[in-house]
């Protein structure tokens, strides 16, 4: 499917504001199911080798699908597959924009077809029984009881009539200070989950979702660390998926988190020699031991007995063994405690002991464990896995008391062996007590410091876990397949042509195309940049609980390392939209490696770089040495446009929460003035006249409002009114977006009238999602003055000073990021059908202040740093993100006018 500039133009038909319907209204929406185009689906990383469950989202062209449309799914051989579907977004005309779907596949097919129809029902649907004090969820294979109060999120898990696990709680360890240097240890106190609210979000027939909200509480009733846990159940599945989120609600100075985990009790009924412990290490490498080992003894119980224990199957009756072993079983140690700790990205260790109070024995070491373990016996047991186990170090899997009637399993998201989380600010302020001093600091280290602003209060982290209730100890092959699914959960995806053809993200992307020499060169450059950053994550070890998913901002050409310790040059925190670059790169390629990179970034930037509690809730933090260190708390980092892709492609409920959090973030302008350090006149925030920039501020608000409107959330009507109100009042400004800012009324959701032409243009204004959100809005609704204002900005940013002055009354000043803005010129070219602008866009792309075609486009080996690595001293993340977006969008909008550089 080739998108030329004119085919893009032909698709830019918008819906008049006056004709906007309630999204749930079926009027003016197609009624014939035959009009719904079938969609072919495939697995992101190829067909799973074992039973798989998955949820995904599929987009639909505007006007093509009724809001109440039902769907059916068929495997490649035509077999009907049980399916559960629900809407996640609507077009302004009321038709379905995005639908979400869930399946469970005992034997996954290579491909599937989604089409209009009646879904097949599962032979045994998942059911939810909502009682006064608990909720029972039955998948047909396992039954789980979820408590509505108390400490146990999951009180029991049964398989058939056998209780596999009980007392599933959250646990964390707290200490009030960090021991420095050679000081002695600090006392820790334990907190456990305390349930405050339980909500059934879905109840089958294929998928059930239960949300649990609460806090961690100690024995004295003191609480902290609010959490949200979602439990996912699928028809016919023997596992439970858990998505665990906690919010850090301390300032990081006095309360230190020294351990954070999920804990279960596992009843054990088998003889000690029929109980097993399993840990998966590298690949499918396996630690496979019995609590009471009968191999390697001085006396041989018999080959059949030894083989059964190694395989994890039931041993023959001891009366059949060599009696020299049977009569001495009491003298063989029982190893009740096991621990696998991953304290760095490149090292894990396993140790064991007989029981508490006795010495630990080292078992083995390795590099990167899978994060999967098992404890149980031939009569059943619990397997447990943590995704991104080594990437999110320090992590740990603990088994305690496997020699008793009840083992304890803890999956540590933060290992207690690693020492406490140290979230304290990293310097003492260095005398930057006033705004002028802070601006001077900004001028040397690029860090925008302000006392009290470098706080982690309100940041969050989300982790994904899976628990299997198994009828017996699984085989080595089965454990390997389970470990693969923990590492990389199966994900169904739509074909590239469908993702692009539905125009759900504004028509700014076209498929990868190497048909022209110039296009071939650009595609090679895009591949180089992605591969380089993927390699840097590995070589520079950009891993860790709070860091994984982010990349660094700027390289140090002298030390040949990234500037991890230099103010605002360290962690990138979405600066200039690398998130968007990655998601657009996936949309046009369908590449699994790009999807997973973007997924990790979305999980990180949406949680760690954004505040979810406190006065700055809804704002993100600018780039810095610590993700929360900089005093610039802004919409440009928290913007919903960075999260929308992952939400709609996967229907992930936690990402949906993040989007909902942002709907009222316009109120943050009452508590924090973004321009406080550079204002020359006193400013008191007025709810009826808030100074809001039309670039990074408004685009973030607009993305949140659009998402709430199209999702039809509880504040959809207000969000729609604010979105359309600001669009109309921006369009009414004499210089539109060139004006730079406006006075916004929280009550009316509109900007105050502007009567004079004002010019205030920043190189950053459009670089945090404004290009993309404006393209979506112009595609969706017909506000001619808004479109004219945006096209004016697109035409003039890279135009001559004379052109700028002639139209706006003054030129825009000394602007940079001209290559990144080439895509604005290309958008104007497509929208206005102007060949001259399309040609100009390519000149700007090739000769702007970004990456030139004449650069080496290679990386060099470096051996002088701590570890051997690759370096490309000409690469910076700002330029990479903008080059990627400019290349992708200019190819889509003006690709038919491309020339060789």
From TrEMBL:
Record Pfam families: PcRGLX_1st, PcRGLX_2nd, PcRGLX_3rd
Residue ranges constituting the PcRGLX/YetA-like N-terminal RIFT barrel domain according to the UniProt record: 39-116
InterPro entries: PcRGLX/YetA-like, PcRGLX/YetA_2nd, PcRGLX/YetA_3rd, PcRGLX_1st, TAT_signal
Domain PcRGLX/YetA-like central beta-sandwich: 126-483
Superkingdom of this protein's organism: Bacteria
Signal peptide (UniProt feature, chain positions): 1-28
Protein name: Tat pathway signal sequence domain protein
